[in-house]
Amino acid sequence: xxKREIDFDVQPMTFKKILVAVDEDDSSSSxxxxxxAVTLANSYHVPMGVVTVxxxxxxxxxxxxxxxxxxxxxxxMSKSIxxxxxxxxxxxxxxxxxxxxxxKPGKVIVQNTIPDFEPDLLxxxxxxxxxxxxxxxxxxxxxxxxxxxxxxxVR
Length: 155
Fold this sequence. Notes:
By secondary structure, this protein is an alpha/beta fold.
């Protein structure tokens, strides 16, 4: 095989809409992913979405049958998303939308949130040394393989 010269011009790559997945436990990798997404959205002056997913499979059977338990979790997640949206706006991102979903995080984000928001970049955290939160860490691979847009996994 001979040497092959690669001839192309480097083109700048920007994104028009960014979605970041954050977990309900606010893990360090989730915060880093959020910080990265906010920085990009602010630099590119583009809209940003923030999504978190309530994993109903994590609830005990007893809790899942208690409407007040589910409602309390939903309410807590709603307040959490509001905080993320406000922090992004305070950082300078003009357009920020919050999303709350329920189910298996990777699947719900790929099948529901991405088609709804239509980002061209998904940013998510990956499990860190802290093993207390598996929300995004266990789902990052699924999202990277199945998302119809680019995916950046932040550690």
